[in-house]
Amino acid sequence: MAHDFELGATVVIPWGIDEVRGTVAEVYGPENDRRVVVALTPELSSYVVDEQTTVSLPADAVRLAVVAA
Amino acid sequence: MPSTALVDWRSVGLARLAELEAVHAQATGSARGRRWGTTQLNRSLFVVLVAQFQAYARRLHDQAVDVHVAAAVPGQQALLRALLTQGRKLESQNPRRAALGSDFGRLGFSFIDDLKAATASAASDLDSLEELIDFRNAVGHGDEVRIAAIEAQGRIKATKGSYQNLRRTIDRLAGTMDEVVATKLTVVLGISQPW
Hints:
Low-confidence stretches of chain A: none
Mean pLDDT of chain A: 92
Strand order of the largest sheet of chain A: 4-3-2-1-5
Shape of chain A: globular
Low-confidence stretches of chain B: none
Mean pLDDT of chain B: 93
Number of helices of chain B: 8
Radius of gyration of chain A: 11 Å
Oligomer: heterodimer
């Protein structure tokens, strides 16, 4: 699993039994326990949040979003 | 056994502080006594101390969230992690008492009260943390009036001795936090000591 997320990259994260999109706000932690702070907005996250916020996840739980051609 | 967060604080975190302390020693020598022209270097020690403590607190919260998530049923796990970290104050704010209490309170216990009850020194250690962050913010914002006011109160001075005292206090607080979180997680989740 690649952990070289760039700040601002659009990513997909698990949300219960579904997935939502966010953007990478920060990557931190030692190499063997890398964490990603993902910024969520109502629009990008399919309105699972009603205002801009962040969540933090292990890097393994985050994947880059496929950008539509 | 301490958490990985505390192990990292006492190895990586304190090593990073030691790097700056070594530069200080090179610049000033090792003999006792007041040094001149080291004010900015001394102030930077307090800034880095807060930064390293914030990194520790966030890592400890991460580990505690991992324990909560591991105890949940699979269908709840991703959502529980999101809710326990959503808008976490330690992402963007100083690790003050209010931020620590709010973030760790989501884990199911009254963190600040539990800290105060855990050791005789915890309440005063938390007060020292607030003073340290007041000073760090004054330094970070270049607020010389505020810096002078804090120093005039005798709470903190931009000296290596004052820094060393606070580093010991913050290290003690970090150890107390580690024990309290582990103990309370056993109660909340009905599990054995997580670390």
